[in-house]
Amino acid sequence: MVPKYSQHYRADWEKMADFKEWLQPVENDTSKAYCKYCKCEMIAKLSVLRLHISSAKHRKAIEPMKSQKKINFPKVKKDLNTQKAESSLALFVCEHCAIMAVDHLSELCKYRFVDSKYSDIKLHRTKCTNIIKNVLAPHFIQEIVTDLGDQEYSLLIDESTDILVLKMLGVSIRYFSRSLKKIISTFLGLVEIEDGTAVSIVNGIKGLLAEIKINLKKLIGIGTDNASVMTGTNSGVHALLKNATGNDNLVLVRCVCHSLQLAMSHASAETLPRNVEFLIRETYNWFSHSSNRRLFYKNMFQTINGGSVPLTILQMCNTRWISIEPAVCRILDQWIELKTLFEIARRDEHCYTAEILYNMYNDPQNHLYLLYIRPILQEVQVVNKLFESNDVDPTRLYNDLIGLVESIGRRILNPTARVDILTEDIESYLDPKPYMGYAFETKLLEYNLQPNAANYLRQRFQETLKVVKPSIVEIAQEFRVNAPMIEKLVSQWRNIVHIKWESLTSTVKFWNEVMQYKDAADNNPFAELCEFAMSLISLPHSNADVERVFSQMSLVKTKLRNRLAVRTLNAILYVRFGLKRAGKCCYSYTVPDNVLRSIGTKEYYDSGSQPSTSADVDEDEDLNILFP
After folding, report:
1. What residues have CB less than 8 Å from 315, skipping those under 6 apart?
2. Pfam family example for this protein (predicted)?
3. Which of 66, 85, 110 is the last residue before a domain boundary?
4. Within 10 Å of residue 194's Cβ, how many Cβ atoms?
5. Sequence-ordered list of residues with C-beta below 8 angstroms from that of 97, at least 6 positions apart, any chain
6. 193 and 305 together in one domain
């Protein structure tokens, strides 16, 4: 007996001339078809459909339809001028001011530019917030995801607290952009975490990558500060991420800027007297809250220097000892004037602080201390800024760091010593009377100190440089690959020297040229080597980008805007960093048409845009705090 099979509805029937006007499928039932003229269901068989056409019921139902003429309306292209204006205003608000300002800004445009084609714009706080969160921010996120593709990348992570003392995890991403042909280091997201434990941080990273749809397995390196929660061997963030990614070769790069800072702090704490830091800090504090003191000092300075205006005494950061460098330079440039100021202040104001500062300025040893540390701080600051920059060649940074260590080390070594500062013990090669710099030696002769005092200073400074040496030398961990790949890389590296390359001054430009090279078969014989090189270049060298994220967070979420929700804060930062990545401003960036069309659609609104009285209020109202 031949088995029977039930017929299912076929969409192809709707294209047939006899059926296309009236045939429709039945929802949730593929065994039936529907006639929209007769408003009835039938079995989904071709023979049944043909019988239905010839039925009296169908002929009677279709008769009125034959006499009606079908009007074909031409497709009208939707005008996106209004959406362009709204998106531009939203970009402006993101980059320059609070969202609440758009209430008046849009009305101003409407009333003052009545003859403009954008005069019908309707943009206020709620709509602007939705454009930022649901249109612009996803657009810039998708740009990163599309540009990254399936490439390997590194993450820069750090934690901080916002104005509401919420613990935030800042995440930046670093990768090679094939479309822009350069290294991109940009903001990826802020994540609110419960505490500062490694588990909480790793969960925050995994949640962020899953939300943005970036493959965690492609992570090849992380850049962190030197905190134990980040670098712990067994339960640190690095160790947990190695387990999460399944990559035992996940590279950990401790921020060199933090290492330099720790080295300088350690060296100063161990060897320099505490009064040096006190002098710098209290000199700034003397002027920080008194306009009268500033005016008096300005008049006195102009009297001494023939009308010249003094530069402001700078503040040193309590957590960054390297920040002392510009403050030291300002104080040394105005040493005589400051000494005179505190001499007058202790006499006229009978101020104990002024008397202490005058005694310190009158002590030649303090002057010599600052003259000694100034050139060292300047050298360290130069290297520190190189590591903070995104425009430097990453392959040359190691040489700059080694040059800094050798430069500082040679100050205390015997000039004839043949020693490798990085690997050998330098104790037996120390110069008994090291040269401390021109400014120091000149002032030392001028002050005519006792020989014991001069030798004491030299010995103390020598100890400072010895402390610096082991703390700042940190070499990135070796980047390992499997044996078969190493053989390919060695072969390609051996052959790459036989090609005449043009871009030899820049590492990134050179590997871009290698990436575009084709042989006679139109293949790239150095493909694996290029991938490996770009992965290495994508490794971080400092955490400066995450610090910039926190700076922007502090500018956006202020005391007046302290109710800004994390999602809105993230959206604003996505737009800001997206504009920076594109090298555009709010007036020059062109939002794609497909993105503009989503403005005003149903998907553009969500439940998060509704007013809320919960703790996580999603508002941007500065004045709610002043006028509740």
Report:
1. 284, 288, 327
2. Dimer_Tnp_hAT
3. 66
4. 10
5. none
6. no
